[in-house]
Design goal:
It is built from nine helices and 14 strands. By secondary structure, the protein is of the alpha/beta class. Strand 13 and strand 14 form a beta hairpin. The structure holds ligand 6V0.
Length: 333
């Protein structure tokens, strides 16, 4: 290309504006679903992939690069060395041993902590200003591990937490009521996993409190249906893993929604894993990460919503916190 008359020659875009770089650590099923969703949603100018498996990484990189003619222009790079992540705005960590059929997320803990000891300090050194988004399971404990190992402020270390559980919750309620899941406001909080807490008292449909409107319309409050939905949410990851071996598409979209709020400073409220000390009676000294509705922007966690919980819901949340704190204590970090 030749410049038009009376203009400067073409210069690299980098001289005009700051590019957005997202790194994805772990190019497995989850990492690649996240990378491809971020790519198609045009959230980054550069995507860096890091994985320990050189051949798989090269294959995944080429496969994504070959879609260039159909996608926004994004530089895709990859390597087995953390230097590839240098100057990232957002680092998403999915590397880890995969949860196998019948295994709880907490069973994975020790396998993945050893891996995080290798990855997190190297990532933090290469991108000291980045936001860290932890996805590997058990996500709440590993978010605590990433916080400790990175030395980053808690506002910049976020776990994907129950953002996905809440989407499953909203889908099932929407399916039950035959409405659009985007019009359902409903949160699962606490641990991403077996002790997650469904906040039934604040479910709303199109802004209307759902339980109240059911009562006002003289429909019985279908407690059994809600409990069935909560149990289905808790069991849904196990169900998908049992059927296809892993989960990928929903976590890809879930993380892309978090990346949008963070990188584009959208200040949307998401249930994500945050340092929860001092909320809902979680004791000082219990430096536990678990999911609470948090406002996300370019600086990370901008604030945590003070939820109006029933005493039963708050007690369930504290039980989740206790389980998680006991697991964190085993790590000696
Ligand atoms: P996978 O397909 O086995 O991918 C894991 C990847 O990590 C592999 O490609 C490995 O080569 C790579 N890896 C292993 N060690 C290293 C290392 N030292 N450095 C770099 N890469 C390494 O697993 P999958 O992608 O299915 O799952 C990844 C993690 O996400 C697991 O811990 C899952 O349990 C977790 N998930 C978390 C979800 C959430 O909502 N938080 C949802 C789904 C899965």
């Amino acid at each position: 290309f030749r410049p038009v008359a009376d203009s400067c020659p073409l210069t690299p875009t980098t001289t005009h504006r700051r590019l957005t770089k997202v790194s994805v650590i772990g190019a497995g099923n989850v990492g690649m679903a996240i990378a491809q969703t971020i790519l198609t949603q045009n959230l980054a100018d550069e995507i860096a992939l890091l994985d320990a498996n050189r051949d798989k990484l090269r294959g995944e990189t080429l496969d994504l690069q070959h879609a260039a003619a159909f996608l926004p222009r994004v530089r895709i790079v990859s390597a087995t060395d953390a230097a590839i992540t240098k100057n990232s705005d957002l680092v998403v960590i999915t590397a880890g041993a995969r949860q196998v059929s019948g295994e709880t997320r907490l069973d994975l803990l020790h396998r993945n902590v050893a891996l995080y000891r290798k990855i997190v300090p190297a990532v933090a050194e290469n991108s000291p200003e980045a936001l860290l988004l932890v996805v590997s399971n058990p996500v709440d404990v590993l978010t605590y591990v990433a916080w400790r190992l990175s030395g980053f402020p808690a506002s910049r270390v976020i776990g994907s937490g129950t953002n996905l559980d809440s989407s499953r919750f909203r889908f099932l309620i929407a399916d039950h009521l035959q409405v659009n899941a985007q019009d359902i406001q409903a949160y699962m909080v606490g641990e991403h996993g077996d002790s997650s807490v469904a906040i039934c008292s604040s479910i709303s449909v199109g802004g209307m409190p759902a339980l109240k409107s059911l009562r006002d319309n003289h429909q019985s409050f279908d407690e059994a249906a809600l409990e069935g939905i909560r149990l289905a949410v808790v069991g849904s990851a196990y169900e998908v893993i049992g059927l296809k071996g892993y989960t990928s598409w929903a976590i890809g979209y879930s993380v892309a929604s978090l990346a949008t709020s963070l990188l584009r400073d959208q200040r949307r409220v998401h249930p994500v894993s945050v340092l929860a000390v001092g909320f809902h009676g979680i004791s000082d000294g219990h430096e536990v990460f678990l999911s609470l509705p948090a406002c996300l922007g370019r600086d990370g966690i901008l604030g945590v919503a003070e939820m109006d919980l029933t005493e039963a819901e708050a007690a369930q949340l504290r039980r989740s916190a206790k389980t998680l704190w006991e697991n964190c204590q085993l790590l000696g970090l």
